[in-house]
Specification:
By secondary structure, the chain is of the alpha+beta class. It has 29 helices and 12 strands. Helix 18 runs parallel beside helix 20 and helix 19 crosses helix 21. It is elongated.
């Protein structure tokens, strides 16, 4: 008998070390059977995570457990685990309905495992499960959810956190802030956190992610043991991620700040997506993944996601097309083809589009440096036709984004100017400064309304003169200078010695000195004002001189050597690329060696300007270029603008023809016509 028992035990021993099949499966979107290793739950929630948890970070990459300790990585084989006892299965988990009362009067929950025989538990000892939908519908506050939990906790605890976040989303910001504080002070809150810690490794994977998402959104600190434990469980069980979990995991990572465990989990997500991108079926999930992978994702993964999105274009809804802009901006991937197709959908369904969506689209276009005149015009036209239902701040925010993009929509800016003139009292100091910046940067004027608009802006800003900082006052005056308006009520306080000294010792000295030079040039040239205070400014930093070889060769071919000069330095820190001297009628070019009086010559300034110096339609110069042209004309120059991007695409003979057309007057030379755009 003893020999038989020993033989039986020897045959049984090898089975105790077998690895479950679910530990060796491939990455995929299928929920496996739950297999867990032995674990020891901790009851502490708050505290320094790094001090309470070992420094090693464990995560799963392609069926291998990898430990990080310091800077050394070590790969090990599949972990030998024991199949979880059926008594520990999530469906078997229960709580004793008999509660013991602690010294402080709070109920204690006795956590235990169900007996092997299911008939042992009667209906009286089993708490009835509470669904997430029922919780979120019946509860009106976060404390209501915690009260229900304290009466009889049920599995899984993720339902309570998810319900609290659902309830919180229905509240205003102020109410949500108060409710969160009440949540942290509720007696059952710490108990709920302890239950979540115990259940972390036996909950279904989607419940782990739902818990983590709700916990982060509710404002529980990221460095707590609860959050970091859920992050590590999500790392270890990432192979259980199906498409639904993938969407939730993407939302979780998007809402969290970078840290060691978050970075590890994001890296695991990238590996998972790289293998399973072609199996993603829902467009919403695809866009959530695109937003989550991060700007530093491998370019190969970004292109895979782009190709997947292009394949799904026919299934894009209007909302999908709108969200695609934000998703690509979050990944920092500029897919012109995809953006163009989504722009067409947005343009076709622009009416009724929420203001937040329009703002997000324009912000994404700015971040991606994507310029689409048709899209911008459609948005601006829609806002202009419905401007009466928009708040002034909303329209102003859109104008700021248009200015960042270099887009000037005349009708919308005219209508906004009228609203400002009619109701200047609705503007605060920040709004006034922003409006001045937008209109001066885009060099926008509206017929006879501009002087009145400038007066209203001056009067409104004068009321804040005792509250405005020196730098904001300088910014406002500089904006007025670009608009060729000089309110001395604002300029005189700026010219005080103590104010100038404060500006020149601030953190942004170079920028302030540059704007003071602009002010000095405008006061000397535009209004011939002799300042009482001499601005002792450092010389401006040397700017790189561009050769403009193509224009140089064209002038040499057209005029010959000695008939033009390069990089001419002028007063007030101005520099012109080329100078040509001609007679008064601009019919003859004069050599620089000839001695003639200034009354007998006409100086011509040729400026080679980049695309960024124009508004997006390339037909209207921006504020600084317009001011430079104005000052050069005051100094006696005839100004010719040469667009760099147009010169680069023209043949040399066409560049020569263009310069000849611009140099000589219409009476002296009838051009053959070159299709080249200029604003001069």
């Amino acid at each position: 008998m003893t020999n038989r028992a020993g033989s039986f035990l020897r045959n049984l021993r090898p089975f105790s070390t077998l690895v479950p099949a679910s530990r060796t499966r491939r990455l995929g979107f299928s929920r496996p059977k739950i297999v867990h290793s032995n674990w020891n739950p901790r009851n502490l929630l708050f505290g320094d995570f790094d001090n309470r948890v070992q420094s090693s970070v464990r995560y799963l990459f392609q069926d291998a457990l990898i430990f990080k300790s310091g800077d050394n990585f070590q790969g090990i084989g599949p972990e030998i685990v024991h199949t979880v006892n059926r008594l520990l299965c999530p469906r078997r988990l229960s709580f004793d309905s008999k509660h013991s009362v602690s010294d402080n009067g709070l109920k204690k929950i006795n956590f235990h495992h169900e007996a092997s025989n299911e008939d042992v538990l009667t209906k009286e000892t089993k708490p009835s499960p509470v669904s997430l939908r029922k919780l979120s519908q019946e509860c009106r506050s976060l404390s209501d959810v915690l009260d229900i939990f304290s009466e009889g906790p049920t599995f899984p605890s993720s339902n309570y956190f998810s319900a609290m976040w659902t309830v919180a989303k229905r509240m205003s910001e102020d109410q949500r802030r108060v409710e969160k504080q009440l949540m942290f002070n509720h007696p059952a809150f710490h108990q709920l956190c302890e239950h979540t810690l115990r259940e972390a490794k036996i909950m279904h994977y989607d419940h782990v992610l739902f818990s983590l998402h709700a916990i982060v959104k509710l404002g529980i600190p990221q460095n707590t043991l609860l959050v970091q434990t859920l992050l590590r469980v999500a790392q270890e069980r990432i192979n259980e991620c199906d498409e639904k979990c993938l969407s939730v995991l993407s939302a979780v990572l998007e809402a969290m700040k970078p840290c060691k465990n978050v970075d590890v989990l994001r890296a695991g997500l990238r590996l998972l997506v790289d293998q399973q991108v072609w199996k993603i079926e829902r467009v919403f999930t695809l866009q959530a993944v695109i937003k989550c992978v991060g700007k530093d994702a491998p370019i190969g993964l970004k292109r895979k996601l782009e190709m997947k999105a292009l394949r799904e274009l026919d299934r894009f809804s209007d909302l999908n097309s709108q969200n695609m802009f934000e998703a690509l901006a979050a990944m920092n991937h500029r897919s012109v083809i995809l953006l163009n197709e989504c722009s067409k959908t947005v343009i076709g369904n622009i009416h009724g589009c929420p203001v937040k969506v329009l703002i997000t689209i324009l912000q994404s276009c700015r971040d991606l440096q994507y310029r689409n005149l048709n899209l911008f015009k459609a948005i601006a036209d829609y806002v202009a036709t419905t401007i009466d239902i928009w708040k002034l701040k909303q329209v102003l925010f859109l104008l700021i984004l248009f200015e960042n993009l270099g887009y000037r929509h005349t009708d919308l800016m005219d209508l906004f100017m009228k609203k400002v003139i009619d109701d200047p009292g609705s503007l605060n100091m920040k709004s006034i400064l922003t409006i001045l910046h937008v209109y001066s940067s885009l060099n926008h004027f509206y017929k006879s309304q501009t002087p009145k608009f400038q007066e209203v802006m001056t009067s409104s800003l004068t009321g804040y003169l005792h509250h405005i900082s020196s730098e904001n006052l300088l910014n406002a005056v500089c904006s007025f200078c670009l608009m060729n308006h000089f309110p001395m009520a604002l300029i005189n306080p700026l010219l005080q010695k103590d104010v100038i000294n404060e500006l020149l010792v601030s953190d942004d000295t170079e920028r302030n000195a540059h704007k003071l030079r602009i002010l000095a040039a405008c006061l000397k040239l535009d209004i011939s004002c002799h300042m009482d205070v001499d601005l002792e400014l450092l010389p401006p930093p040397s700017t790189p001189l561009y050769p403009h070889e193509k224009v140089t060769d064209a002038l040499r071919s057209l005029l010959g050597e000695g008939y033009f000069s390069k990089n001419t330095q002028l007063p007030h820190n101005y520099c012109i690329d080329f100078e040509v001297r001609m007679d008064i009628n601009r019919s003859q070019v004069l050599p620089f060696s000839s001695v003639v009086t200034s009354a007998d010559i006409r100086r011509v300034a040729i400026l080679c300007v980049p695309r960024s110096a124009y508004c997006l339609d390339l037909g209207h110069p921006k504020g600084f270029l317009a001011m430079k042209m104005r000052h050069l004309k005051i100094m006696g120059f005839h100004v010719i603008l040469v667009p760099n991007w147009e010169v680069e695409r023209l043949e040399m003979k066409d560049v020569v023809t263009f310069l000849k057309t611009k140099l000589y007057s219409t009476e002296a030379f009838i051009t053959a016509g070159v299709n080249l755009q200029s604003t001069c």
